[in-house]
From TrEMBL:
Record's keyword annotation contains Nucleotide-binding: yes
The protein's name: ABC transporter ATP-binding protein
Annotated InterPro entries: AAA+_ATPase, ABC_transporter-like_ATP-bd, ABC_transporter-like_CS, P-loop_NTPase, Type_1_exporter
ABC transporter domain residues: 5-214
Pfam families according to UniProt: ABC_tran
ATP-binding recorded as keyword: yes
Keywords: ATP-binding, Nucleotide-binding
MF annotations from Gene Ontology: ATP binding; ATP hydrolysis activity; ATPase-coupled transmembrane transporter activity
Domain of life: Bacteria
Species of origin: Methylomonas lenta
PROSITE patterns linked to this entry: ABC_TRANSPORTER_1 (PS00211), ABC_TRANSPORTER_2 (PS50893)
């Protein structure tokens, strides 16, 4: 089986500083992989390189066995949900935030029903009445889960998650782990949280831009 994501001896330089050194790893369909390590170790830079925000100075990034290019970057973004530690919801209330992507032509015919909205929120330990709340008046942990819910509603199968459980209590965090245990979903996560290491099938440890597989 070919990997969905593969880095082959990838180095990246940004602002005259090398931030990734000779990185090689692969992530397969359904795998739950985590990038662990101290702050500024290069974990988030791996995700940004995959999304085309950094250009490799050497080596090659592959997505579904195609090398990274402007065309393949668009392919990655079309099937990927990238969710950061402080996601931008882009709407005044939660319902509008969840429905925002369905205004675009590519998703217009897949508009979720009210029951689907409520179901995905409940799976992530969020109450149905949050749909009518102002996004300025919800917590960081609620924002993280709403961003995850939006990816699920869009039917994304590849999730690039950057510290998305950092503001969650243990119950909410467990709900996230249960949702992403789905074998149809592939996860590459950046996390300091030791609970992620237990949840993940593969652990990559990063240190000063270098990577080692430890699980």
């Amino acid at each position: 089986m070919l990997p969905i994501i593969r880095f082959d001896k990838v180095s990246v330089t940004a602002q005259n500083k090398t931030i990734l050194y000779d990185i090689s790893f692969a992530v397969y369909a359904g795998e739950k992989a985590v990038l662990s390590g101290k702050s500024a170790a290069g974990k988030s830079s791996v995700l940004r390189t995959l999304l085309g925000m950094h250009t490799p100075t050497s080596g090659t990034v592959y997505f579904q066995n195609q090398s990274l290019s402007p065309q393949s970057v668009q392919s990655i973004r079309s099937c990927t949900a990238y969710i950061g530690q402080e996601p931008i919801l882009g709407a005044d209330n939660v319902r509008e935030a969840l429905l925002l992507p369905f205004q675009f032509k590519s998703h217009r015919n897949h508009h979720p029903t009210e029951a689907q909205l409520i179901s995905v929120l409940q799976r992530l330990q969020l109450p149905a009445d949050i749909l009518n709340r102002d996004t300025q008046h919800i917590s960081g942990g609620e924002k993280q889960r709403i961003a995850l819910a939006r990816g699920l509603l869009l039917g994304k199968t590849l999730y690039l998650l950057d510290e998305v459980t950092s503001a969650l209590d243990s119950q909410s965090k467990q709900a996230v782990f249960e949702v992403f245990s789905d074998p149809q979903l592939t996860v590459l996560a950046v996390a300091h949280d030791l609970d992620w290491l237990e949840y993940s099938t593969t652990v990559f440890e990063m240190n000063a831009g270098q990577l080692n597989q430890v699980k």
